[in-house]
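Bumping with the actual sequence this time:
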Amino acid sequence: MTKHQTQLTSSEIASIWTGYMNDSMSKCILSYFLKQIEDEDIRPVIQFAYDISFTHLEKLTNIFQQEKLPIPTAFTMGHDVNLNAPRLFTDSFMLTYINHMAKAGMLAYSG
């Protein structure tokens, strides 16, 4: 049996590119949330969401490298988020945001 490696299709590349951009945005926002959170009971939820985004980014980066595709220019802390900005969101909003993003992520990754 011969070994044959099939290249990704354009729709597959678009999916991993979109996932990479979404997770880079989430990582930035969740970093800000972790810095601003007041209710320590909520911190593990935000940390868990951050860890998921971080893991996804590592896996997607590996796929881009294996396929010899350029890694997208993503959202970054240095250019897109000011971690020292004053508190903009309530802890309740942070939980609601994570809930909605989890639902959107389930839809996106199931595709």
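The tokens above came from a reply further down the thread. Residues 27-110 form one domain.
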